[in-house]
Structure formats: C-alpha cells, structure tokens
Amino acid sequence: MTVDYITNGEGETEALGCRLGRVLEPGTVIAYTGDLGAGKTAFTRGLARGLGIPDRVTSPTFTIVNEYEGGRLPLFHFDVYRLGSSEELFDIGWEDYLARGGVCAVEWSENVDDALEGDVIRVDIRRGDREDQRRITVSNGPDLEDRAD
Question: Is the pTM of this model over 0.70?
Fold first, then answer.
C-alpha cells in the first residue's frame, strides 16, 4: 500500500513519524529518500518518540549510525550519504544491526538499495508548495491517517 501525506511544519512531520513508530515491529527497516533538508531527521525524531525513546535524536551524518535505546524497541538511525556502496554498509555491521531486533531507519537509502531486502517500509519526503510544507509518501507500510498522535 502506498499512502501520500502533506505536513505543514516540522511538528506535523514529527507527528507522522510518531504515528509510524507506535506500530513498528522488531526488525523493521525504513528506507528514506528525499532531498537534503527535506525532513528525514525530523521524521526520525517522531519515529523515536513513537517508540518511546527519550533521547534527543540527531542526524548521524558524520557517525554513519546513531543508536537509541530505552524505548519499546531500539532505533538504529543510519545516514549512508557518504557510503560508496552496500559493501561499506555491511562492513560497519549492517547484518548485526538487523539481528538485534530493533528498527533500522536509513537516510539516503538509494545509496545502498541492493542491501535492503524484504518488507522494507519506504518513506519519500519532498518539499511541498510552501517553505514548511512536505509531501511524504509511505510505501509498504501501515495507513497512518486514522492513528492518533
């Protein structure tokens, strides 16, 4: 199933991520696509909130992966923009992260798409008509429209 959403402001983008985070299962992989500054990290902040993670979520641009524990599931937030291939993702322990039973959220997933197997939830975030508006497409995931924030 593919569902399109419009958010107006960072708070609404985070709220949509929170709704998704509340229903995720162990081992879920979320593959993000979207331009620089489109809101992938904001969506992930909401995802963490929905998982019950109390930590402040930041972009893992220079660390490649940030780990967050303390919620109902751990969250492994990847930024693979700087990786040249899927081999590099495996070199940093991708299979180990998958085996830990958490949620793997991967920004710039198109750079390692051949490593993402199975029922991956795809989240595409694009700028909308206004500066703070975002067009978010969720594919292979649940319908988040009727879920409370």
Answer: yes
